[in-house]
Amino acid sequence: MSDGASDQLAETPRSRIFSWPLPIGAYLGALVAVALVPTLLFTAVLLERNNRAQQDVLTTLAEATAGSIVETIDRELAGMTTTLRVLSGSRSLDANDLSDFYDRARKALDDTHSYFILLDENLQQLINTRVDYGTALGATSDPQPAQLALSTGNTVISNAFYGEVAEKWVFNVLVPWQQRDARRVLILTQNAEDLTNLIAGQNLRGGWNASVVDGNGIVVATTFMSAEIGKPFFLWPTGRLPDAPSRQALTVDGADYETFTVNSRLSGWQVVVWSPTEVVAAPLVRALQIFAFGGILLAALSALCAWLLARQVTRPVRELAADARRLGAGEAVSAKPYKIAEIATVSAALAEASHDRQEAEGEIRFLMREVAHRSKNQLTVVSSIAKQTARHAPDFDAFQDSFQKRVQGLARSTDLLIAGGVAGVELRELLEAQIEPFRPGDTARLQMNGPRFRLSNQAAQTIGLAVHELATNASKYGAFSTTSGQLSVDWSIAEGVLVIDWRETVSKLEKTEEGRGFGTEVIERMLGGTLDAVIEREIAPDGLHCRFTMPVEKLLPDPDAMKAERRFGG
């Protein structure tokens, strides 16, 4: 055997060891697994902790809501007690004028959802504002609290009971009253369903409900079902729990419940905020189900994408050709991580070329839109100038002269617009450009003062035309028509408005413009209509004074256009 053959046999096993390539799908699948599995596990842990934190928040909120409901009920009962004490001081009651006292009590309790009852010492009803005065009344439907109030002399709050007159479940607040030999019991009664309306506005979410339970274990009010009022509280089938812990878990009829109990300081009632355990845990279960479904769907989509990418990566050259064709058609091309370095370099170059082309085309489109927009504005303004000049010109020569000067004024504004771009035009530069052709040699006769302020292109054109007209009038009739006249232009910005003061001063005003000329049209229609300007114009013996007040928001350049210009290198 030759040395060449020996070398070939020696190299064959080594070459086989390093020539067991795996398909790209295997690598992609492993990559998906490495990236997806830890992420899903970490997300599951975070989701479980987040849901537990949300449950703790809901639990804390339910506990706080129970305390808030107790405070609401105690305030209502305290208010009813205060009302009774106010009524007990009535002169009609002292004089035993029950008819007048009935009228006063009924009027005082309008729109309070409460009714007044007066009992004698035998617990017979003397007054009940639920019915008309003089209606035959019997004994009270709930005598025990009334007897307790008379015997102790203290304010008593009853449990819920079915009122014979009201024909509803009610509760009473009772205050004893005695004067000379007369002993009475003043009662303020309220329907239990009205107490339900009082607690219904509490912040109960996530399946939590609230029930107010009296000393006999009867539901006084509830946010669950109004039909439960007057029935024993269903979570306490063995009766009221006087020493119920603040928080406890109960099982009733095979269902688990979470409860919070808070005692009322004034009435001895208990407020129970409760919810089925499965409702409390439902968000976690639902979130885990969604997570499991989403994880499976994400894994399936990732596997599908890996398989599709594995198929496509075997044809990198054809993909590069397709990218090149898309680049030629002006479509976006993105770089792809090819396994071969040279092909990856070509792909990156194509993506960079595509990006540069997209930016260049975007800049061209932007500039074309800007040129079209400015051209339309210019044509509109020129058309308006021609119409208004023709309307007020006595002959063609006057029209030609006025039109030419106004177009030249517009051209000066346009030069500033082109120089400023979409960033706008400085107000001072605009004023100087329009006044300069008319200004006399003595520079002291023109004063301009004001802060830096940049106008939008549209605002600059409009204000430029108005200033041109004012400067023209100044040269014909005003400050610049004499050898000593002066012009002062001041502007200021405050409280969202720009104020421009144009004040001409002459020794004697020889002539004033009469009628409504083009200048008046520009000032009133264009400034007033386009820029919402408030115009004040006064022709005094010593000269013209104009004041223009314009909202700044109408004058500022477009920030989006400025961003686009900076992005495209403007």
Plain-language structure description:
This protein is α+β, with helices and mostly antiparallel strands. Among the domains are: 87 residues, PAS domain (Beta-Lactamase); 77 residues; 172 residues, Heat Shock Protein 90 (2-Layer Sandwich). The protein is built from 14 helices and 18 strands. Strands 1, 2, 3, 4, 5 and 6 form a six-stranded antiparallel sheet that branches. Strand 1 and strand 2 form a beta hairpin. Helix 2 runs antiparallel to helix 7 and helix 10 packs across helix 12. The chain is flat, with a radius of gyration of 45 Å. The C terminus is likely disordered.
CATH top level assignment of the domain at 394-565: Alpha Beta
Strand content: 15-25%
The number of E-state strands comes to: 18
Low-confidence stretches: 4-18, 566-570
